[in-house]
Design goal:
With about 70 residues, the protein is an alpha+beta fold. The protein has helices spanning about 45-55, 60-70, and strands spanning about 5, 10-20, 25-35, 35-45, 60.
C-alpha cells in the first residue's frame, strides 16, 4: 500500500492511502491532522484527478519525500 501526501497550508498535514481500485477510481483512506486532532475518512478519487494531482505536484508519494530528505 502506498501513502501519498497532499500539499496544504502550514500547520496541517494531509495524507492518504489507496485501499481500493476500480476501472475509473480509487478508494482512499484520507487522514487530516490539524491542531493536534486527527480525522480519518474513506473517499473516492477518480484516476484522472489522481494523475493530474501527481503531475502538478499537489500530491506526492511519501517514499519520494523521505528519499529526498535522506
Amino acid at each position: 500500500m502506498k501513502r501519498y501526501c497532499i500539499k496544504c497550508r502550514s500547520g496541517r498535514i494531509e495524507y492518504f492511502d489507496i485501499i481500493g481500485d476500480t476501472d475509473d477510481e480509487y478508494t482512499i483512506r484520507l487522514t487530516r491532522v490539524s491542531d493536534g486532532s486527527e480525522k480519518t475518512m474513506v473517499e473516492s478519487m477518480s484516476k484522472s484527478l489522481f494523475q493530474m494531482c501527481l503531475k502538478t505536484g499537489y500530491v506526492f508519494e511519501l517514499e519520494q519525500a523521505v528519499a529526498t530528505v535522506a
